Sequence to fold (118 residues):
Amino acid sequence: MNKRKITKLNKLKFKPFDRYGKTIKGWSWHKISFEKKTNFGTYISKLDPGTKTFPHIHSGHEEFLILKGELIDSDGTIFKKGDFISYKPNSRHSSYSKKGCLILTFMRGRNNLIKKNK
Fold:
């Protein structure tokens, strides 16, 4: 079938994650299906140990499955391998990985950076 795509986890080609206008050291992604204009799609993120994401707000739903490692959310909740997390529109957070992790993400809308008060 020419309309089918098979993604093999052991053959992923990661590129620096660049959806916020600049890259975040230690965060890379492999796009499975992703539409840049709508920010809808599926991708696998790899966060190296010590990587932090920017604080952001979700304009649409975001869901992800921890495939490997663990991710710590801004409220201290630790997500581990096998956890499936769902964020509703207008939810806010940032994440951190002490040990590193691999995440399968289903994105349905933009994440907008939360600007720090000066």
